Amino acid sequence: MPTGLILGIESSCDETAAAIVERGSAIRSNVVASQIATHSPYGGVVPELASREHLRNIVPVVRAAVEQAGLALSSIDAIAVTSGPGLAGALMVGISYAKALAFALGKPLIAINHLEGHIHAVLLEQAQLAEAEDRELPDGPVLALVVSGGHTHLYLARHTGESWSYRNVGRTLDDAAGEAYDKVAKLLGLGYPGGPWIDALAAHGNPHAVPFAISNIKAKAHRGGRKGITSYMATQEQDEHLSEGSTAFASGDDLQHEIPDTLFSFSGIKTAVLRYTQVHEMQASIEHRRAVLATMPDAKPSTALAEVLAVCDQPTLDLIASFQRAVVDDLRRKTFRTAEALGATTLLVSGGVAANRELRVRFTAEAADRDLYIAFPSLALSTDNAAMIAAAAWPKFLSRDFAPETLSADPGLALGR
Ligand code: KG4
Ligand code: ZN
After folding, report:
1. What is the DSSP letter of 9?
2. From atom 26 of ligand 1, which residue's Cα is the shortest distance away?
3. What angle do CA 22, 403, 120 make, to 5 degrees?
């Protein structure tokens, strides 16, 4: 007799996570071991260190998830694991452990695309709302923006029967939005990951002080051309239609809209911020801030904002606020334009950058203006976690879409077509 309990395991980047979720919606446990302290001195994720930390953490993290759920491992129906995209060595740790566990317990193994996991972080909580308040997502096309440290993707998502399918309708040509946050934070002498610091500090600056031209981002997106596309971001078909910017729906699609091919580019704004600091001779204040932050390795915006504000002069805060406004504006404009082109009635926004306060406020306001239903995950489910992996596995469990014993890491795994 199935219990509806799925153990999810996530190790694609710098978080080792395990969770048990019942029927894709009820979180029985959700454990995340962050590696921030390990990578922080380097200002970014070091792949070899990530694999080592996953190896250290995987057993205690899975054990904690099982204990916190108050269950015996034998009561779960299946084990779900992230198979890509992500760091090869990091993914392999989760996959090897999940395979061994599935084999030992005689349970099926389900492979989950990390990006689908992020989308299910929102769907999981929407399913909870549906149960509690008896309300469903509106009928009509669903557009999902996944915006994180590794990804900036737009998907047209469809729910057919139990399963979800996806079509990629937007992507970045170079850096992901979260990557831009992290790189700009690093070059300004702030801590890692940079997104939460910029989010907190931007509230103290003037977002109109530095006129970062959004057209910089747009122009670069088109100039970047095909060279900037990594293999997992574009299918052959999308690549061919890049210059056109949209393609017709393939036969069999029942929507009467063109499929847009929305392009983002965030490497230009990072360079613009660097140039601004050079022209305005901000180096000394950056080095001072870096030195102060180096003495506070565990500093987080929630615990050390006052200390960090004390080493940020007003021009720096204005620069941070202007950077954030430019990025959020670009994400907002292109996402809503795509939603309109597709006739979307629902917008799901997920991934680490979806935790950003300004993004949530501005997206929510525009969705209200356009009468579009918008949903974000709670903050805990915005960044990487395994509850989203277990939730994404539930439809696959119902349709018996199990992974072969030969499952391996796929660092460049694409989602949808
Ligand atoms: O989804 P995630 O945990 O990992 C990936 O799949 O990449 O996202 C991490 C990214 C980092 O780049 C981090 O700086 C960014 O999300 N991030 C934020 C915020 N919180 C995390 N960016 C902007 N504002 C935030 N509040
Ligand atoms: Zn992620």
Report:
1. E
2. 356
3. 40
In this structure, what DSSP letter does residue 78 have? E
Task: Name which residue sits closest to atom 11 of ligand 1, judged by CA.
Answer: 149
- For the stretch 353-387, pLDDT in tens is 999 999 999 999 999 999 999 999 999 999 999 99
Strand order of the sheet with strand 5-10? 26-34, 15-22, 5-10, 78-84, 109-113
Centroid of ligand 1 to alpha carbon of 377 (angstroms): 13
DSSP bridge pairs for 333? none
Location of structure tokens 């696959």: 396
CB half-sphere exposure, 215, CA atoms < 13 A: 1
C-alpha angle 276/277/279, rounded to 5°?
A: 65
* CA separation for the pair 292, 64 (Å, rounded): 36
Candidates 148, 198, 385: which one to mutate for ligand 1, based on the most atoms within 8 Å of Cβ?
Answer: 148
CB distance 190 to 289 below 8 Å: yes
**Which pLDDT belongs to residue 160?**
87
Identity of residue 383: T
Cα dihedral 298/302/303/306 (nearest 10): 120
Pairwise CA distance, residues 296 & 304, whole Å: 9
Q: Is the dihedral of CA 302, 304, 310, 316 positive or negative?
A: negative
> pLDDT band at 43, cuts 50/70/90?
confident
Each residue's pLDDT tens digit, 320-330: 999 999 999 99
